[in-house]
Amino acid sequence: MGRFITIEGPDGAGKDSVLERILPELRKHLSAELVVTREPGGDPIAEQIRHLILDPANTAMDERTEALLYAASRRQHLQAVIEPALKRGAIVLCDRFVDSSIVYQGAGRGIGEQAVADINAFATAGRVPDLTVYFDVPAAVGLARIQAHRKNQQFDRLDQEADAFHERVHAAYIRLAQANPQRIVTVDATPALADVSAAALAVFKDRLSEYWTED
Question: What Enzyme Commission number(s) appear in the record (predicted)?
Answer without folding.
Answer: 2.7.4.9
